Amino acid sequence: MANLGSPRYQLLCAFQFLVLLQTKVFCYQYKVGDLDAWGIPTSANSDVYTYWPKNHVFKIGDSLLFLYPPSQDSVIQVTQQSFNTCNLKDPILYMNNGNSLFNITSLGDFYFTSGTAGHCEKKQKLHISVGNGSTAYSPSYGPGALPDTAAPSYTPVFGNIPAPPSSSPSQGLSVFIAAVVGFVVCAVISGIM
Ligand SMILES: *[C@@H]1O[C@H](CO)[C@@H](O)[C@H](O)[C@H]1NC(C)=O
Ligand SMILES: *[C@@H]1O[C@H](CO)[C@@H](O)[C@H](O)[C@H]1NC(C)=O
């Protein structure tokens, strides 16, 4: 067993805390379709937007990035009914700058398609579900998740830390705060032990 009071252990412990915090709390930006941009699916990959959301777990605070040539395409958020019938009238949200970020701010189902006539019928349509979060809190999800090797048993105490705003300056600050908190907590715990 390592010497729990050593500064080295405390540093390691603070680092683990950071990793846990990152995998649990930080928000992710997902590029819709991954390597494929937002557009009419190619015949080789015609169900790309059906499969893509199944490989991701979305949560509040995450965002979806739609990339496309702005002169040729657009993104609209529509109702479930409009999604099913490819009705492009009266969208909930219309974005056409080619680099559109949809921010997930509530639970539920979100339906997107192209605002360009004919594209919806060619399966350029995306439905995502944002669930209650039990799966979103598993450390094994999200890009950059590291293997959860030696999770200390006291981590559930930190389960309710509020998500930091996703803008980068404050994220940097919260990383710093998390590191400090983690260090102090670890120091206290190893002091007790
Ligand atoms: C989502 O948030 C980003 C900045 O965080 C903002 O630029 C963008 O306009 C937002 N998207 C929508 C659809 O409001
Ligand atoms: C969230 O969970 C509650 C009860 O656990 C359930 O009633 C509700 O439908 C769920 N919401 C979603 C979006 O899954």
UniProtKB/TrEMBL annotation:
Keywords: Cell membrane, Disulfide bond, Glycoprotein, GPI-anchor, Lipoprotein, Membrane, Signal, Transmembrane, Transmembrane helix. It comes from the Eukaryota. InterPro entries: Cupredoxin (IPR008972), ENL_dom (IPR041846), Phytocyanin-like (IPR039391), Phytocyanin_dom (IPR003245). Residues 1-27 form the signal peptide. It is a lipid-anchor; GPI-anchor. It is found in: Cell membrane. One of its GO terms (cellular component) is plasma membrane. Coiled coil: none annotated. Pfam families: Cu_bind_like. Residues 28-132 form the Phytocyanin domain. The chain crosses the membrane at residues 173-192. GO terms for molecular function: electron transfer activity. Its main location: membrane. Belongs to the early nodulin-like (ENODL) family. PANTHER family: BLUE COPPER PROTEIN, EARLY NODULIN-LIKE PROTEIN 8. This is Phytocyanin domain-containing protein. It comes from Liquidambar formosana (Formosan gum).
